[in-house]
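Hey L., structure's done. Input below.
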Amino acid sequence: MDTKLTLRLNKRVIDRAKYYARGHRTSLSRMIEFYLDSITKSEKQEFEITPLVESLSGVVTLKLDYDYKNEHANYLNKKYK
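Output:
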């Protein structure tokens, strides 16, 4: 359900925003809606896990004390010796 909202903004900001919206083939209302939606979503809703990523989950198992920073440093030391 769409509801009307009245905003008071600086005319120059509105003009620049309309120019931007026109250049991106969208409306100023749609831009504002997407912006407000993005900043008010909870962290859990920021992104969806795709089926591919879901299928890869659990493929690699590591020891609990695995130190990836140390392993990466060792790899770089060997590579650039």
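The first helix runs from residue 11 to 23. The chain has one domain: 11-43+50-79.

-- N.
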